[in-house]
Specification:
mainly alpha; about 70 residues
C-alpha cells in the first residue's frame, strides 16, 4: 500500500488525462497534484472546524469544478 499513495495515484490520473486529451498537455502534473491534495486537505480541515456547513457531499460539485478548471 505504501506505493499506492494519493500523490502517485493522482499523478497517474493526470498523466492518463494528458494522454487522452482531457488534461491540458501544458499543465504541470506536479502542480496539479499539489493543488488537488491541498484542496482536499484544506477542505477537510475547514469542514472539521465547522467552517463549511452540512455534510462533505454538499461540496463535491464545487470542488469538482475547481479541479476541472485546474486541469484545463
Amino acid at each position: 500500500m505504501r506505493r499506492r499513495n494519493l500523490g502517485r495515484l493522482l499523478r497517474q490520473v493526470f498523466e492518463n488525462g494528458k494522454a487522452e486529451g482531457v488534461v491540458g498537455r501544458d499543465a504541470d502534473t506536479e502542480l496539479l497534484v499539489a493543488g488537488v491534495v491541498g484542496l482536499l486537505s484544506q477542505f477537510a480541515r475547514l469542514l472539521y472546524f465547522g467552517e463549511f456547513q452540512g455534510p462533505a457531499e454538499n461540496w463535491i460539485a464545487s470542488m469538482e469544478q475547481m479541479i476541472i478548471k485546474m486541469c484545463a
